[in-house]
Amino acid sequence: MTEQYDVVVIGAGPAGYVAAIRCAQLGLNTACVDDWCDASGKSSLGGTCLNVGCIPSKALLESSAWYEKAQHDFARHGIIAKTIKVDVATMQARKDQVVSDLTQGIKALFAANKVTLKHGRGKLLGPNQVEVTSKNKTSELKAKHIIIATGSSPVNIPVAPLTEDKIVDSSGALAFDAVPKTLGIIGAGVIGLELGSVWRRLGSQVTVLEAMDQFLPMADEQIASDALKHYGKQGMDIQLGAKVDGAVVKNNKVEVSYQDSKGQQTIKFDKLVVAVGRKPNTQDIGAEVLGLKLDERGFIQVDDHCQTGIPNVYAIGDIVRGPMLAHKGSEEGVMVAERITGHKPQVNYDNIPSVIYTEPEIAWVGKTEQELKQAGIKYKTGVFPFAASGRARAAGDTNGMIKVLSDATSDRLLGVHMLGAHVSELIAQGVIAREMMASNEDLALTMFAHPSLSEALHEAALAAAGHAIHIAGRKK
Ligand code: FAD
Ligand code: NAD
């Protein structure tokens, strides 16, 4: 018998599972189809983010940061720890446990909200029909509304074909069972920098080969250039303008050839990670059956409300335009669920925070200085270095800065850019301020606790207004 639902969501990543829960909260009879399996072949919800993305990478970043602190920072705090070793198996087991706890948590949320989970591969058969194929059975679901949230997968490049364990993608790099002595990474994007940081902290000699001449073009140039210096000091060798044209496994090493400004180069690594971006999972989902339009890169075309050309079919998360970020997909999921039930929410695409969880962390929201220049918008800048922050000094972590950009005429906050410890948390203040349409003056007039890293945001706003207290020579 064909089961009938108000909504069928395909994909249980942060876009799909959030959409399914919100639909159920709003009283819609909801099913969620997802095909992700853990190592034992059991359904594991949360998609890329929980299984091989945000969460496992942050678990390893945390563990490796502890190791690095124990090695290099304990002594200057007067803590003597003589034998510090890495036990990769324990580190990986902890990471796996964190993942498993959280994926189980989503199952519990589905049960509590009465979302029906269908483990299997979903395919669109029509605007109201989804086929679900699992190991040995195929069934059909009928739905008044369909939300497609099938996510994305790593891009593979023919010049560096993946192997069992030598040339790997991000999932492989999250699962190394030992610290590679030398590690090559293709791509100085977010994944390259985060996973490069993990293994560098644990002892790998890391070289990142980036095709572009510019480092992190999506970040504010001042922040990106300062970050590059810090990564260099830490020993991460980031080579810009390095175009990889081959990678082969020879004598248990990966031999990588690339072209840079000096000509053809060759370098050998114990392992190579290919981290050159991700592509939307829009193949084999039956998009053509419904006549869904894909753009030239394979993303499903949607309007500002994630509606496809077919009114009752929506697409959210990594399979549609915009940054491939978990929180962006989740907000789209909530928006679609609420619009289906007659509400009129919007996603504020101009206010999506980005974070790179390296040391120092990078975080930003809104426009970069180069974007404002290019758009010919007149702006004020205020920068406050963490070196002048009492809390940062007490913590012994003074790298980086907070920078605010505000409109020269209206004073409206246009961008907030951060480099430093804990800025993944501090950036929320910039996001909230912008969501509330704050002016720079609003931030400058707000009281911040002392001593706190947040004071750097206050001082940056004061600097933009021309009267920072803790930077000499900038009074007005
Ligand atoms: P996904 O999470 O990819 O989920 C899609 C789900 O749909 C999967 O379970 C998949 O198996 C399932 N599926 C696909 N096709 C079908 C089908 N036909 N039938 C049934 N099920 C199907 N983002 C951040 O915001 N912060 C981070 O710190 C961060 N770190 C990351 C680290 C790494 C190493 C990686 C790889 C990514 C990271 N991301 C991060 C990106 C983030 O993981 C994605 O943006 C996010 O997971 C996208 O969510 P989604 O729901 O659109 O898709
Ligand atoms: P990315 O787009 O961030 O970076 C890929 C990099 O690889 C780019 O700098 C690109 O120029 C380079 N590149 C492409 N082809 C190349 C080649 N042939 N040789 C050398 N360099 C090449 O992609 P990613 O790092 O793979 O991450 C994928 C997505 O996952 C990103 O969109 C990101 O938003 C998301 N993600 C987010 C987080 C986070 O929010 N902290 C963490 C990890 C991943």
So what's the CATH class of the largest domain?
A: Alpha Beta
- Biggest sheet: strands, sense, closure? 7 strands, mixed
Q: Report the sheet-strand fraction.
A: 25-35%
CATH topology of the largest domain, anyone? FAD/NAD(P)-binding domain
The CATH superfamily name of the largest domain is FAD/NAD(P)-binding domain
Euclidean distance between termini CA atoms = 75 Å
The total number of structural domains is 3
Query: How many β-strand runs?
Result: 22
Number of helices: 14
Averaging pLDDT over every residue, what do you get?
A: 97
Q: Write down the overall geometry.
A: globular
**Helicity range:** 25-40%
Question: Describe it for me?
Answer:
With 476 residues, this protein is of the alpha/beta class. It has three domains: 3-154 and 279-350, 3-Layer(bba) Sandwich (FAD/NAD(P)-binding domain), CATH 3.50.50; 167-276, FAD/NAD(P)-binding domain (3-Layer(bba) Sandwich), CATH 3.50.50; 360-465, FAD/NAD-linked reductase, C-terminal dimerisation domain (Enolase-like, domain 1, 2-Layer Sandwich), CATH 3.30.390. Helix content is 32%, strand content 26%. It is built from 14 helices and 22 strands. The chain has helices spanning 16-25, 47-52, 54-72, 88-113, 170-173, 190-201, 221-234, 287-290, 326-340, 369-375, 390-395, 423-435, 440-444, 455-465, and strands at 3-10, 30-34, 116-119, 121-126, 129-134, 137-148, 152-154, 167-168, 182-186, 205-210, 237-240, 243-250, 253-260, 263-269, 271-274, 278-280, 313-315, 354-356, 361-366, 379-385, 401-407, 413-420. The strands form five sheets. Strands 1, 2, 3, 4, 5, 6 and 17 form a seven-stranded mixed beta sheet that branches. A five-stranded parallel beta sheet has the order 8-15-9-10-11. Strand 18 and strand 19 (361-366) form a beta hairpin. Helix 1 packs parallel to helix 4 (88-113), helix 3 packs antiparallel against helix 4 and helix 3 (54-72) packs parallel to helix 6. The longest helix has 26 residues, at 88-113. It is globular. The site of nicotinamide-adenine-dinucleotide (NAD) has 25 residues, from helix 6, strand 10, strand 12 and strand 18.
